[in-house]
Write a structure and sequence with these properties.
- The chain is an alpha/beta fold.
- It contains six helices and twelve strands.
- The protein has a single domain, classed as Rossmann fold, CATH 3.40.50.
- α5 links the parallel β9 and β10.
- The longest helix is centred in the first third of the chain and has 20 residues.
- The protein starts with a strand and ends in a 6-residue tail after the last helix.
- The model has no long low-confidence stretch (mean pLDDT 96).
- It binds uracil.
- It is an enzyme of class 2 (transferase).
- InterPro entries: PRTase-like, PRTase_dom, PyrR_bifunctional.
C-alpha cells in the first residue's frame, strides 16, 4: 500500500487537524465539520496527482487551448456518519463523481473492547473498472474500512482504490494493509501512535461522529 501521511510537512492542513483535536475548539460542531470538509478538499487535491489524465481541447472566447483533464470515472464512498463532511470535501473537488454511502457501526458485545462491525445500509453504483475513493475520517482498528470494502465487492471490481482518512492509528494501517491490494493508496492527514482499550485513537480527537453531529444513545 502507498501511504501518504501529510503531517510530515508543515502546512495549513495541520492547523485544521489541531483544531479538530483541541478540546477548547472541537465542540464548535460547525467548525469541526468544516475542518473535516477542508481536509477532504486538500487530500482530494493531493490524490488527484495520481489520477489518469487525457488531453482535451478547450474553446475560450479568444481561441483554443489544450488541457489535461481527469480521465477516471470516480465513485466516492463514505462511511456514515462521520464520513459525511469528508465526502462533502471530496465532492467539492470531484464534482462529477458518482456517490455511494454505507453505514458501518461497532456493535459492542459483553466487553467494551470487543465489538463487531455491522453493515446495514448500502447504496452504491457499479464500481466496475472505476476509481473508488473510500472515505472514513477515523481509521482506528481498520475493521470498518475492511468490512465496507467486503460489502462493496458485489458492485464490481474497481480499477484503482484510494482510501482517505483524517487520523489513522498505525495498528489500523497495519490491519488494512493485509486486506487491500498493494497498489491501493492511503491519504491521511496524520498517523497517531495507538488505540486505547475501546479501540479509540490516542491522542486522536474523541468520537468524530458525535463531534460532527451530536451525541447518540448507545444501543
Ligand atoms: N471513531 C472515532 O470517531 N474516533 C476514534 O478514535 C475511533 C473511531
Amino acid at each position: 500500500m502507498h501511504i501518504h501521511n501529510f503531517s510530515k510537512q508543515n502546512t495549513i492542513l495541520n492547523t485544521f487537524v489541531s483544531e479538530m483535536r483541541d478540546v477548547s475548539i472541537q465542540k464548535d460542531s460547525m467548525r469541526f465539520r468544516r475542518n473535516i470538509e477542508r481536509i477532504g478538499e486538500i487530500l482530494g487535491y493531493e490524490l488527484s496527482k495520481k489520477l489518469s489524465y487525457k488531453p482535451t481541447t478547450i474553446k475560450t472566447p479568444l481561441g483554443v487551448c489544450e488541457i489535461e483533464k481527469i480521465d477516471n470515472d470516480i465513485v466516492l464512498c463514505s462511511i456514515l456518519r462521520a464520513g459525511v463532511p469528508l465526502h462533502d470535501g471530496l465532492l467539492n473537488y470531484f464534482d462529477k463523481a458518482e456517490n455511494a454511502f454505507i453505514s458501518a457501526y461497532r456493535h459492542h458485545k459483553e466487553k467494551p473492547e470487543s465489538f463487531e462491525i455491522i453493515v446495514e445500509y448500502l447504496a452504491c453504483p457499479s464500481l466496475e473498472n472505476k476509481t473508488l475513493i473510500l472515505a472514513d475520517p477515523m481509521l482506528a482498528t481498520g475493521q470498518s474500512m475492511v468490512a465496507t470494502f467486503e460489502a462493496l465487492k458485489p458492485f464490481g471490481t474497481p480499477k484503482n482504490i484510494h482510501l482517505v482518512s483524517v487520523i489513522a492509528a498505525q495498528e489500523g494501517i497495519d490491519f488494512i494493509e493485509n486486506h487491500f491490494d498493494k497498489d491501493t493508496h492511503l491519504w491521511v492527514a496524520t498517523v497517531d501512535e495507538k488505540l486505547n482499550e475501546k479501540g479509540y485513537i490516542v491522542p486522536g480527537l474523541g468520537d468524530a461522529g458525535d463531534l460532527a453531529f451530536g451525541e447518540k444513545l448507545q444501543q
